[in-house]
TrEMBL record:
Residues 125-152 form a coiled coil. Pfam families: PadR. Keywords: Coiled coil. PANTHER family: TRANSCRIPTION REGULATOR, PADR-LIKE FAMILY, TRANSCRIPTIONAL REGULATOR YQJI. Gene3D superfamilies: Winged helix-like DNA-binding domain superfamily/Winged helix DNA-binding domain. This is Transcription regulator PadR N-terminal domain-containing protein. It comes from marine sediment metagenome. The lineage of its organism: unclassified sequences, metagenomes, ecological metagenomes.
Amino acid sequence: ENESMHGRQIKKAIEERTFGGWEPTDSTIYTILKDLREKNLIRSIPTPDADEKTITYEITKDGKNTLEIMMKKEQEIRESMRSIITSTFGIKDELSSSELKELPSFTKMANKPEMETLQVLEFQRTFLKKRVEVLNHKLQKIEDKISKLDDKNRNEDVSKI
């Protein structure tokens, strides 16, 4: 976000921040960089001590503004999805909105020390296990209702014979 990087560094940063979830090809990276340059979201800068082929990029003011807007939009989407999921499945929200905002995304965790990342991941695991527990309980109630209705329907069918 704040440091200048060349294409290979950007590719590596993407791979690290997505925990290997996205490993873009060189052609994909350079196509995206070209597009970002054309939109004035990044610019190339001179690279001391590098060969002629290495181009270093830095984010522009427009790029920073765009990134800030995108990060706000991402947070809004996260909040909306959380609201939809909790209301649809009737899951009581154990965490307040401010606490949920503190749950870092994978993109933010990649730059943290391993110990901090481990603590965050362990917290998220505990949080998700609790959610799974609540969902399993709700699923069991649904299964019980289905079973009772099936039994009732079978008994009614037998009594008609």
